[in-house]
Amino acid sequence: MIIVPQPILAEVDYLGTKYFGARAMRVFFEDVLSGAYQFLASDESDLRLALEIMNQYPDVPLGVVDASIMALAERHDLRRILTLDRRHFSLVEPKKLKYFELLP
């Protein structure tokens, strides 16, 4: 099952609309809501951990979205992360998981 973390929705919408059009994004969001993907919401503890990760790597230009995905992965023991931006994820060493497995 593919998990769609809440913090990524705005980025997916922006890039998806830019490259595939608004209709494709409506279909994607309908799929998320229908259960085709597992939706994973963030809470305050995820945002705190995201900030901790960002502060731990001050020389890495981690945005809140990438750091939040890392925080969610830590909380839910999700090692495998699908990303097109490998450079940030490959620089961060998660505490609990030891490493992230980046796809593709």
Comma- or semicolon-separated keywords:
2 domains; mainly alpha; single chain; 4 strands; 54% helix; 104 residues
Give a written overview of the molecule.
The radius of gyration is 14 Å and the shape is globular. The mean pLDDT is 93. Helix 1 runs antiparallel to helix 2 and helix 3 packs across helix 4. The protein has two domains: 1-40, no CATH class; 42-104, no CATH class. 15% of the residues are buried. The chain is mainly α and 104 residues long. The protein has a two-stranded parallel ribbon with strand order 1-2. Strand 3 (80-82), helix 5 (86-91) and strand 4 (101-103) form a beta-alpha-beta unit. The protein has helices at residues 9-20, 22-34, 44-56, 64-75, 86-91, and strands at residues 3-5, 38-40, 80-82, 101-103. It starts with a strand and ends with a strand.
Order of helices and strands: EHHEHHEHE
What portion of residues is helical?
Answer: 40-55%
Uncertain residue ranges: none
> How many domains make up the coordinates?
2
Tell me the Rg in angstroms: 14 Å
Assembly level: single chain
Number of beta strands = 4
Strand content: 5-15%
Span of the ends, CA to CA:
15 Å
Largest sheet, strands/sense/barrel: 2 strands, parallel
Structural class of the secondary structure composition?
mainly alpha
The shape is globular
Count helical runs: 5
List the helices and strands and how they pair.
Layout: E1 3-5, H1 9-20, H2 22-34, E2 38-40, H3 44-56, H4 64-75, E3 80-82, H5 86-91, E4 101-103
Parallel strand pairs: 1-2, 3-4
Helix pairs in contact: 1-2, 3-4
